[in-house]
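Lecture notes, unit on protein representations.

Consider one protein chain, 272 amino acids long.
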Amino acid sequence: MASSSPSAASARSTASRLQHNRAFRFAARSGFAVNGLLHLLIGGIAISVAFGSGGDADQGGALSGLASTPGGGILLWVVGVGLFALGLFQVLEAFLIRGTNKDGWADRAKEGGKAIAYLAIGFSAASVAMGGGGDSSSDTRSITATLLSAPGGVFIVVLLGLGVLAVGVYFIVKGAKTKFLQDISAPDGKTGNTLTMLGRIGYIAKGVAISVVGILFGVAATTSDPSEATGLDGALKALVELPLGPAILTVVALGLMAYGVYCFARAKYARL
């Protein structure tokens, strides 16, 4: 294999130095904490939905809830900066992965996917802080409608749904097999056991919610009805329609809150 060019080596060296900068790493860790805060809020909204109240049980609803609190604008900027930093950290992580084999590209795709997710929520937080909207369900429906109206759009939406479903299954498997422990330096004793329990419950619950999002994309594609694709909020509310739906949604909501607490702990114990 040919050696890297001097310019590529210099770029990698610069990226590595930035990734190891103490202030940058602190900002990236704060991204895990604010992500945990959002999941706690989403879980709380989902519980209220389970008991018959309204609210958008997704990132948009959580961000809008933050905006309405005293000092909410400042909190939103803290959320945005933390998630931007974490997203950029994942971009650097993807860039620094070596190798051109299948595993190398799979790792790049995984880190790149994380980066896109964190950056997207960071942009949403900044948008709400500047007075913009936070209706992610409406955005999802709009994007789905645009795709369905395009040539081959149904096939694209089906692929999108399968991709989201795969992510959901990935979260469920990662939680069930406690593979998330590879991402953290878990302490020994009760703290480590509690962290493992929170991570297992949280990842499985989040995986279930994401899987339902993917299924709803599939429903939207097969019915040519973009209103069926409603993102996380619609997915959680769809659970209420099942037999014992309120109980199921409550369990999933508590799991999302467990994931939020895990994210707070990850801010301290994450392997960066």
